[in-house]
Write a structure and sequence with these properties.
Shape of chain A: elongated
Structural class of chain A: alpha+beta
Largest interface: A-B, 30 and 19 residues
CATH superfamily of one domain in chain A: Calcium-transporting ATPase, cytoplasmic domain N
Distance between the termini of chain A: 26 Å
CATH class of one domain in chain A: Alpha Beta
Oligomer: heterodimer
Order of helices and strands of chain B: EHEEHE
Strand order of the largest sheet of chain A: 10-22-21-20-11-18-19
Strand content of chain A: 15-25%
Helix content of chain A: 40-55%
CATH topology of chain B: Alpha-Beta Plaits
Number of strands of chain B: 4
Distance between the termini of chain B: 16 Å
Strand order of the largest sheet of chain B: 2-3-1-4
Strand content of chain B: 25-35%
CATH class of chain B: Alpha Beta
CATH architecture of chain B: 2-Layer Sandwich
């Protein structure tokens, strides 16, 4: 509790004790009674009265201070001293609770995002000095011991260790770093001492950027928040005039009809409606819900740049994904080997790997790496490149070389046709590398981009979360794209697209979709910035360390796990559900109480519940967004 | 020209009042107050004298909500 909160708590206690004791002792003199109850009332309510008075002078009449001051002063005028004091007392209890709950949520969220480093160990003249990260210029040598956070982005100059990135990515797998590797601030050093040369200032480092992004997310307000602000602006004056009408019109009507006016009854009812009507429950609980949702998401490595984006995500009906790097790893791997003519798979791979050993082409590299991880290689122990000679690259077709005295040709179908060798047509899709050994066809190796292990689940989860269509865009060939789409269960595939075509495709989709349906584009954030900004909502993944991606997207996934998209949608859905629950719950209780209050069925005590009770329940409900 | 300021304010409705008051101040193009982050972002109009404008923003906010603080 802060000092301010403690002061309010003391005032509440003193005032409550005084009020109760004055209730217990019966006081006959009405003047004495008034004088005595005035003490706890002023103790608890002086600041509200002051604010209400200042508000009137400044022309800001209709706010909750005014409502409370009017209601309680009114109660005193009617001689309802206990009620008047109690209303003020409960109002303050509610305010205290609200400020405490909000402070606690804020702290919880900061703890979830516990990546802010407290200090940096700077080496100066052989001594290590703890310095404020803000004061460390780029290019300084810093020391990070095991258990400490990396305070500033930099390059390892000495030492090796594993880093825990879970605070940034939500991923528990540690990342190994050694001399020469880039390290990102916010990671926790787990094993060895690292000497790091900083490449940025603290303000430009990943940690600062992420913290900034999360803190500023509440600046971009959602439609629900704006709705409540506008609502409160019209609602409070409306209620005040309503209450005034309720206090004046029925008694006047009674007088006209010749009945007794019953002023005190109607004024009491009017005051009750004033107490009920306070819009605090909504005004506080809705931003709190969004703040909690964004905080909970960031703990999972999902950075949402604004409440409005979190809100829009729950209405996502079309998810457009880039293929390479989003649904697939973007790395080529040998996925299938089909030996023929009596050759073994190991022979096939070995021959291809040696023949391709001098080439730097991605496909050659993937064959080599497949060979290096095969059993044949571990038996041989090393790759002796001296056996390779007479390497001849056939442009656009493949390579021909002499390996161990045998003539090996490795390449695509065109190469086989050139060499006049009959070859098998692969049944599966992918880039084909056919191999001949001494003119004899030895089989083929299929190379393809590998689908991420959880991409299929990710697509299914998206459907479960209410997405109507998952669309995949790719520059790849139709065959490959269709195969990947069928494997993942994607609804629509558009293949062989140029980068500019992707924008056109997204624009086409934007035109056909309904006004309340949102289109989300998911990419790796590196070369799809135009599409990211064109879609209703841009999600960039694998953003750890990529400033461009963090800049371009509305929602940033720190690692490249496609399952996080559905996870983000779930958080968004939950947050919006809680927001709607609070809006409906608060308005239903308030309007019900207002209605019953106007016809006299609600006492001042119920009115206090409708105000403070509803607010406390709404705040408690809102804090659920933090727990995922 | 946008600038962020740390603020201290006790209730969400008060934060909304500050936002309204800041928006109406001369020299301010737009203002956003986040109660949760306890921050205020002011977008100044072209050529506005920032320190004078902020003095007025401070004054306007105090008037709308006596219990608030803007740290500059």
């Amino acid at each position: 509790m802060t000092g301010k909160q403690k002061k309010v708590l003391i005032r509440i206690c003193v005032s409550a004790i005084l009020t109760v004791s004055f209730c217990v002792i019966s006081i006959s003199s009405p003047y004495l009674r008034f004088g005595l109850f005035l003490i706890p009332y002023l103790i608890i309510g002086y600041d509200i009265l002051r604010k209400a008075a200042l508000g009137i002078f400044h022309g800001e009449i209709f706010d909750e201070n005014f409502l409370m001051a009017l209601a309680t002063v009114g109660a005193f005028v009617l001689g309802e001293y206990v009620e008047g004091t109690a209303v003020m007392l409960f109002y303050q209890v509610g305010e205290l609770f609200q400020s405490y709950a909000v402070g606690k949520s804020r702290r919880n969220i900061t703890e979830l995002m516990d990546i802010r480093p407290d200090y940096a160990n700077v080496e100066r003249e052989g001594k290590v000095i703890q310095t404020d990260p803000d004061e460390v210029p780029a290019g300084t040598l810093i020391l990070v011991k095991p258990g400490e956070k990396v305070p500033i982005d930099g390059v390892v100059t000495d030492g090796s260790s594993s880093l825990n990135t879970s605070a940034l990515t939500g991923e528990s797998l540690p990342r190994e770093v050694k001399e020469g590797d880039d390290v990102i601030s916010g990671c926790v050093n787990m094993s060895g001492v690292l000497r790091i040369k900083t490449t940025k200032e603290f303000g430009e480092s990943t940690v600062s950027k992420i913290l900034d992004l999360v803190e500023n997310s509440s600046m971009k307000k959602s439609r629900s928040e704006n709705f409540i602000t506008r609502f409160a602006r019209y609602y409070t004056p409306f209620v005040c005039f309503g209450a005034l009408a309720l206090a004046v019109l029925p008694p006047l009507a009674h007088i006209v009809m010749g009945n007794p006016a019953n002023w005190s009854v109607w004024v009491t009812r009017a005051l009750t409606t004033l107490v009920i009507s306070c819009p605090c429950a909504l005004v506080i609980s809705i931003p709190l819900s969004f703040f909690g949702g964004i905080g909970g998401a960031s703990a999972k490595g999902i950075l949402v740049k604004g409440s409005n984006y979190l809100e829009a995500l729950s209405q996502a009906k079309y998810v457009v994904c880039d293929k390479t790097g989003t649904l697939t790893k973007g790395v080529f791997e040998a996925t299938h080997m089909q030996p023929s003519n009596g050759f073994s798979a190991a022979e096939l791979l070995e021959a291809a790997a040696y023949a391709e050993s001098y080439s730097g082409h991605p496909i050659s590299k993937s064959i080599k790496s497949a060979y290096l991880s095969s059993d044949a290689f571990s038996k041989a122990g090393e790759m002796d490149l001296s056996v390779v000679s007479d390497v001849e690259e056939v442009g656009g077709c493949g390579v021909i070389a002499s390996v161990n005295g045998k003539k090996v040709a490795a390449g695509n179908a065109k190469l086989m046709q050139k060499l006049n060798v009959p070859f098998e047509k692969p049944k599966k899709t992918g880039t084909q590398v056919h191999v001949t050994i001494d003119g004899k066809y030895a089989g083929y190796i299929l190379i393809s981009d590998v689908v991420k292990p959880n991409a299929k689940e990710a697509v299914r989860d998206l459907k479960d979360a209410g997405v109507r269509q998952v669309i995949m865009l790719t520059g790849d060939s139709k065959e490959v794209a269709d195969a990947v789409a069928a494997e993942l269960g994607v609804d629509v595939v558009k293949s062989e697209l140029l980068p500019a075509d992707k924008v056109t495709e997204v624009e086409k989709l934007l035109e056909t979709k309904g006004p309340k349906e949102k289109l989300v584009f998911v990419g790796d954030g590196i070369n799809d910035a135009p599409v990211l900004s064109r879609a209703d909502l841009g999600i960039a993944m694998g953003a750890l360390g990529s400033d461009a991606a963090i800049e371009a997207a509305d929602i940033v996934l720190m690692d490249d796990d496609p399952a996080k998209i559905a996870a983000a949608m779930k958080i968004s859905g939950k947050t919006l559900r809680i927001v709607h629950q609070n809006i409906v719950f608060a308005l239903v209780i308030k309007f019900a109480c207002l209605g019953f209050g106007a016809i006299g069925y609600v006492s001042m005590w119920w009115a206090i519940f409708a105000d403070v009770g509803v607010m406390i329940l709404a705040v408690l409900n809102a804090t659920r967004t933090l727990k995922n | 020209m946008k600038k962020k300021y740390k603020i201290e304010v006790d209730c969400a409705a008060c934060a909304n009042k500050m936002e309204d008051a800041a928006k109406k101040t001369a020299g301010v193009k737009d203002a956003v107050v986040s109660f949760m982050a306890q921050k205020m972002e002011i977008e100044f109009e072209e050529g506005a004298e920032i320190s004078t404008v902020m003095k007025n923003v401070s004054k306007a906010c105090k008037k709308a909500e006596p219990d608030c603080e803007i740290f500059q």
